[in-house]
Amino acid sequence: MSSFFGQHLHLSLFGQSHGEAIGITMDGFPAGMTIDMERVAAEMKRRAPGQSSLTTPRKEADAPEILSGVLNGRTTGQPICAIIRNTNTRSKDYGDGVDLLRPGHADYTGHVRYYGFEDWRGGGHFSGRLTAPIVFAGALCSQWLEQQGVSIVSHIQRLGNVVDDSLMDAGQVDAAALKAMHLPVLRAGLDADMEAEATRALQAQDSIGGVIECGVYGLPAGLGAPFFDSVESVLSHLLFSVPAVKGVEFGEGFGFASLLGSQANDPFRMVEGNIVTTSNHSGGVQGGITNGMPMIFRCAVRATPSIGQTQQTVSLKTGENADLNIHGRHDPCILPRAVPVIEAMAAIGIMELWKERQACVR
Amino acid sequence: MSSFFGQHLHLSLFGQSHGEAIGITMDGFPAGMTIDMERVAAEMKRRAPGQSSLTTPRKEADAPEILSGVLNGRTTGQPICAIIRNTNTRSKDYGDGVDLLRPGHADYTGHVRYYGFEDWRGGGHFSGRLTAPIVFAGALCSQWLEQQGVSIVSHIQRLGNVVDDSLMDAGQVDAAALKAMHLPVLRAGLDADMEAEATRALQAQDSIGGVIECGVYGLPAGLGAPFFDSVESVLSHLLFSVPAVKGVEFGEGFGFASLLGSQANDPFRMVEGNIVTTSNHSGGVQGGITNGMPMIFRCAVRATPSIGQTQQTVSLKTGENADLNIHGRHDPCILPRAVPVIEAMAAIGIMELWKERQACVR
Amino acid sequence: MSSFFGQHLHLSLFGQSHGEAIGITMDGFPAGMTIDMERVAAEMKRRAPGQSSLTTPRKEADAPEILSGVLNGRTTGQPICAIIRNTNTRSKDYGDGVDLLRPGHADYTGHVRYYGFEDWRGGGHFSGRLTAPIVFAGALCSQWLEQQGVSIVSHIQRLGNVVDDSLMDAGQVDAAALKAMHLPVLRAGLDADMEAEATRALQAQDSIGGVIECGVYGLPAGLGAPFFDSVESVLSHLLFSVPAVKGVEFGEGFGFASLLGSQANDPFRMVEGNIVTTSNHSGGVQGGITNGMPMIFRCAVRATPSIGQTQQTVSLKTGENADLNIHGRHDPCILPRAVPVIEAMAAIGIMELWKERQACVR
Amino acid sequence: MSSFFGQHLHLSLFGQSHGEAIGITMDGFPAGMTIDMERVAAEMKRRAPGQSSLTTPRKEADAPEILSGVLNGRTTGQPICAIIRNTNTRSKDYGDGVDLLRPGHADYTGHVRYYGFEDWRGGGHFSGRLTAPIVFAGALCSQWLEQQGVSIVSHIQRLGNVVDDSLMDAGQVDAAALKAMHLPVLRAGLDADMEAEATRALQAQDSIGGVIECGVYGLPAGLGAPFFDSVESVLSHLLFSVPAVKGVEFGEGFGFASLLGSQANDPFRMVEGNIVTTSNHSGGVQGGITNGMPMIFRCAVRATPSIGQTQQTVSLKTGENADLNIHGRHDPCILPRAVPVIEAMAAIGIMELWKERQACVR
Fold first, then answer.
1. CA distances to A108, B252, B286 from A302, in Å
2. Does the ipTM exceed 0.95?
């Protein structure tokens, strides 16, 4: 099934791009937290389209309406459901069923999976628009985690051939500054280079991919478990749920392939009475469990499949080869909008692990 | 929790490296399949230590004893439990609790997670030895999938600086030959280079990492779902459960970062009445659902943390810095033994997705 | 957690009596079923208040709005979310927090469970009003089950001291007639007796309980499993989720206590090439699995706790004993409104079992 | 599926009556508890056959062997697996497949469910013998709950026509005395009457059913949740997993049917600074959540289906009617052996709820 996640913090996601509404229900969220709706809205805005020339100018009213689980601005401990109405849907444009399969999209696989009964309009349930309620849920989790001293920040580590390989050490990261940047980077000026790279793709009626790197600071040691509920398992499960993510790595990740054990191991030292590691190749997770160092992971994000160029495809109606021309404007680079989604998924996953840990307290 | 997986095919893993036995229970496996125990044993042997100078010479009697779920050589449709006794355990060597934390291992994180009550002997529940029952379960799933026309094969795509970047196209892969190789590679002769690379690490009392690439052939279109139960989510959840795996990518994976949309999209064409894609950048998964093309994924495997060199660490008993010397011989390169584990996880994940699909048949 | 159910057919329930809206999300429902919304509305109406003097005259606009999962009147195979707006909420009547604990309600237990942050207005998330979305979900399941030849009908087997102990044999039950009765009974005239019994309670400013008996006809043999996912386990889990249900029994149920084995066993016979039992003491379930005979179960329903009489209680605000007088009119007998809820839960549970069975097809 | 339970305390049950071994894995059990194996053995013995003329004289070596999760007598916080070898299995007595269907057993339903591949010998996976590992798991949970001040005790409330309708008030129950009785009753002398009732059944080559009543004392208020994870839902799910249980009720249960609201409600009062109810009709659960009063529930247990009398049945091999004579001796009354199983299920269920509560602590 497509829409449920979590054993301790349950999510249920629903909606289609051009249906009545999209939304999410989150159960297991702690009672008594005052929600800062302005900050929720700020996160929603980071994901919303129309923020720059790099993202689709389509306007969406992404204001979540909370239907349940909140009273007088505070969580009740009961299921929180929020919906977002789809107002900008022109479904009459979409004909009476999918015909020309868009390469790189889920048109074909969804058609097979759902026997032709899927809502094909604008990607339907597969649409990236479904990440809006995920950002809502993640924003609540982030606020709760902040109260525990945990912060989650990201930068675009790569966009096309522009690479921001700065280290995400705790001391170097200015969370507020990164959140405020449309193309968050650690090395000054690289955002301009990235914008140029994306603009080149846009001008060629093309799109471009990249890598998002995320750091989680302030985590206690002891979250997670070996094997099936390792930190990496739970987080990758969520991260690969984000449309366009095709790779996930922790710490050195694929860089481990060429490291010797003596290079890859993180030595332990006592520092001010605490056990720490003097390097962080493991990205804060050892044996599937957090070790108290910053958690570092990266997600590979493929270029958005909707491009202006003519593409080869197949017509479902004729069963023959055909050419496809996608009209309208789309995101030439989804990375700036994907950043808050990745952060939201991290917040959700960490909170699930946190609650699992609470359940096992002696 | 650490040991449960699956909504439709349930796994329960248990045991510690130096406890009485390790084992696994699998529920939901179809009734009536005749198990080929010789082939199960062959898979177990691929994972077993002592196959070459590259792996630990430790001998383990890895013969699984099936306790339930099989009658007259056929599955009953009821829970299958198999155990493997731990015979080569010299727990008296291990003292009365963990003291010097081994870098790169779970000694520290496990100690925090389980309040000092964990079984620290030989890695306890964190030990790579727990992958033996996983290979058992995977071998059964593989046999069932074979009956559906699905095959799963792998090669070592990288070991240190030796790279086997051959394409895993269906036509090029000789599954039987790869299964028979200790260091399975597609390009002839690279296994000798890899062996030399690993031997250099061994001689330096060090260890070395790499990348395993896996191809799944014969999959129907329509397995998986968007969002939380995407193919990538379910498989990565399992793959990151394998100790030492720190990265997972599908299709072009992190290579997508520098691809334009026009390069990344897989065009559709009609071929002999079937809808296929003329390239397979997506690795057989689009929108979280299989598209009928070969599924291709890669796992980054870090070097084994047990090395002969002196390492910096901390003593839990004194609370002070200390030096660590690990005696005995360990695997300088875990890759050959990890290959059947990765394949087993793939088989388990695909079968979970297959059964989920069956549950949703109209 | 309170609001999730199912491994194969997932439900997520949300909302509070006086919040913005209540609703439910159902995932895993088959694609391609045309929904008969008139029949859904008919089921909703059976549960709605104000149908007679026996139920609260409160008017609620219980029209479900489907937000997702349906396109052109047919299910898409993706999550179906429906909400019901709360229009008749006068929350200003409710003060600023629970004070006088209503006996028999969840005021006290909810206050402890949710640390005082619960939405206390009108019972909040505990309200029987939350059964409206359950009836919606059940109505869809019933329509699907009907296509498989399964029908679910109920009668009020007992209301106070009036007992309708007629057998629910397949031949004797007129499903349409029972559905049309406000107090569905098998023995003609007993509904008038029951109405009189309930009216006596009403006139005494009191309320009255009873028993609902449900029969499920047309089930195939082979649904369910021994132990944790027995038919009885899955159904009772759902049935006890209905507020006011305090007992569940299958077949002879508590009557088994005084039966000998020779009386309790159902003999097998061949009838027209089929294996049947000549009695049905087991209520259609043996070893946790359906045997193809009608499934028969009963639910004990306690009297509604809201009564007009003065009751002893405690004030949370003063911490002292107090008297409670509940104003307004409530249901003196919830049974007629509980019948469609019980049927909905049965439909949901059977569909969950049906899909579990599909997942295990060889 | 048949063998998994729990979101926070996971159980996995496996084995067949005449297979190699039966067993259970429990994950999520807290680290650091010293297990009192003598008391575990005492619980196992209560369930074991051969304790009196009322139970089968078959001898079973029910000593559980702990394979994992325990080190130096203390739980490690990791999966606990225990197995019981089947030593007294004479499977050659059983022929080559099920033929004559035993009425009241799962022979027929299991045959349909598992396509004829089930292990039919001695009931296979359906056997009441599978309750032995459940008692093991429950014994561990009980020991943990005792440390939290919770105790679980039962009596046989009814055996055939002999009724022990004594109130299970906290003050009246002598837990140790009840645990020591073969037929635990509250009213002195009734055990002799019950024994006579059961002996009459035995002499008639018949068997007899009854009701077990269970009280749980020392529970805090606030365990459980409304709707799908109500205390009643979770416990009934487990209780109906016990073979032979066909009814479950809480507090007044089916007795609520004839009670008025004014009789059924439990008034609140302040007593020594605590909020208590002056009656306990609800059985300690209101709105699905414990209220701090004793939890009281009852299970209807049908007579064992194996009886000495000739019974009507069908032959699977001939497809014709046949007579069945079951040889060997069986339990004429399963109640004394069922008592510790019911208590074990209660302990497991309460611990699951307890851990769910911990996960939701603010």
1. 18, 9, 12
2. yes
CATH code for the domain in which residue A280 is found? 3.60.150.10
D-chain CB neighbours of A77 within 8 Å are: 360
* A131: pLDDT strictly greater than 90: yes
Least reliable range by pLDDT among A261-265, A288-292, B85-89? B85-89
What pLDDT, on the 0 to 100 scale, is given for residue A50? 79
Closest by CA position to A110, among listed C85, B353, C77, D189: C77
Query: Under an 8 A CB cutoff, do C233 and D236 touch?
Result: yes
User: Which chains have 3 or more CB–CB distances shorter than 8 Å to chain C?
Assistant: A, B, D
Check: pTM over 0.95? Answer yes or no: yes
Question: Closest chain B residue to A251 measured between Cα atoms?
Answer: B246
Q: Which residue in D7, D31, D362 is closest to A30 by CB distance?
A: D362
Q: What is the per-residue pLDDT for B362? A: 74
Q: Note down the domain range covering A298.
A: 4-359
Helix H, strand E, coil C: the string for chain A is CCCEECCCCEEEEECCCCCCEEEEEEECCCCCCECCHHHHHHHHHHHCCCCCCCCCCCCCCCCCEEEECEECCEECCCCEEEEEECCCCCHHHHCCCCCECCCCCCHHHHHHHCCCCCCCHHHHHHCHHHHHHHHHHHHHHHHHHHHCCCEEEEEEEEECCEECCCCCCHHHCCHHHHHHCCCCCCCCCHHHHHHHHHHHHHHCCCCECEEEEEEEECCCCCCECCHHHCHHHHHHHHHCCCCCEEEEEECCHHHHHHCEHHHHCCCEEEECCEEEECCCCCCCEECCEECCCCEEEEEEECCCCCCCCCEEEEECCCCEEEEECCCCCCCCCCHHHHHHHHHHHHHHHHHHHHHHHHHCCC
pLDDT of residue B15: 96
Mean pLDDT of C111-121: 93
Dig out the tokens for B62 from the structure: 């890895």
Say how many domains are in chain D. 1
Q: Is the pLDDT of residue A88 over 70?
A: no
Q: Which of A300-304, B96-100, C173-177 has the highest mean pLDDT?
A: A300-304
pLDDT at position C156 over 60: yes
Average pLDDT over chain B, rounded to an integer: 93
pLDDT for C59: 66
The partner residue sitting opposite D225, judged by closest CB among C2, C267, C273, is C2
- Above 70 in pLDDT, residue B91? no
Taking CB atoms and an 8 Å limit, are B359 and C359 in contact across chains?
yes
**Does D330 contact B at CB distance below 8 Å?**
no
